[in-house]
Amino acid sequence: MELATTLKGQSIQNRIREVGVNPNYWYPVEWANQVQSGEIKPVMIWRRAIALYRDTQGDLHALEDACPHKGVELHKGQVQGPNLACPYHGWEFNGAGDCVNIPYFPKDQKLPCARARSYPVQEKYGIIWIFPGESNLANSRQPPMVPEYDHPDWFMVRIPGRFQAHFSICNENAMDVFHGFLHKELQGWFDPALLNLQQTESEVCADYRVSYQGWLTKFIGIGKQGNGVTTRTVSIRYQYPHYHSSLEEVSSLYLMRSPIEPALTRSFSLMFLRLPLPKWLLKGPLQPLIEKLILDHIFLKFLHQDVEMMESEQRNYLANPDRQYVEVNPAIIALQRVIIGQYEKFMQQSRQPSNQTNGGYKASFPLAEMVTSD
Fold first, then answer.
1. Is the dihedral of CA 2, 331, 219, 231 positive or negative?
2. What are residue 151's phi and psi, to 5 degrees?
3. Helix, strand or coil for residue 89?
């Protein structure tokens, strides 16, 4: 559905700051190189605590972070071959969540029917992903496609993010090209204009015209003249629950969201650039150093300014949830409709009787309070 691009004042529905997530998608939880063989990491997806571990063969597994015996956190346990052993009594659970050993049981004694919920997990693009919803849907939905990954013409910079803010606030920041004013001291963009806007049940696509000027535009290949003004089109595609933003074959940004709690969000971003440097230099032993220099001296400076604004927005919302706000960007309003719509869709589906189970448990997910109209 194509929408009008006219900027006009519209009231914000504050329920967007209380809405939960639709868990029937893949969510990133950790960088792959941060979980070594034999290591366990506690991760969380929207209030759901999960023990993520890599067994001694290097395979990944994800179990509910609560032992079905006493409820002890499994991430405090130990990896025993392909299994995860609870720290309390040493009960071992395999990757499917089945109890396969109790160290003080006689070898011929039948084990009790004790099972921890397991979650589909995979490693892709150097990121570990978990599917927290109904596991039978996991194969039909995959993480975003990233064709630039490992492509010789693109240089990749990984950008980690952690925000003390609701995921809707973080998502609006990514869709809001009009906040270039914030980054003016960093030679950010200026004179933005919304050109096209489309929305479906799960997607918002927006094209913006923006202008750039300064040495940074020349370095990352936006403009030929460092002191001249260059005008480009930024295309932003929000496909619930993740983003892709591209700048006319100059850059390509994949921003993957991980909602943790109502006021805590992580992001795992992959920025691809066509740098005006020799490929032997970009793909050689200096690649990690070049990536760190670009991350520290360019992208993190922009990100830190954004984080300050997003966390300020969250603090003021919590201090006065009834305060009324006005939005003028129709792309933000469209984004809010998709986020609320996806949550309400899941809520409606979860109320319907279902025989789908995960290891004897009905597929379920802890949710924020039901949203209500203002």
1. positive
2. -80, 135
3. coil
- The number of folded domains in the chain is 2
- 317-369 pLDDT tens trace: 999 999 999 999 999 999 999 999 999 999 998 886 644 434 333 334 443 33
Question: Residues 176, 329: contact at Cβ < 8 Å?
Answer: yes
Q: pLDDT (tens digit, 9 = 90+) per residue, 238-251? A: 999 999 999 988 89
Say yes or no: 73 and 5 in one domain: no
Question: Which residue from 21, 93, 4 is spatially nearest to 371, judged by alpha carbons?
Answer: 21
C-alpha–C-alpha distance, residues 3 and 228, integer Å: 33
CATH number of 177's domain: 3.90.380.10
Domain interval for residue 153: 1-26+135-362
Rounded Cα distance, 315 and 240, in Å? 25
Q: Give the Cβ contact number of residue 14 at 10 Å.
A: 16
Predicted structure pTM score: 0.90
Do 181 and 146 share a domain, yes or no?
yes
Q: What count of other Cβ atoms lies within 10 Å of the Cβ of residue 52?
A: 24
Q: Is 373 contained in some domain?
A: no
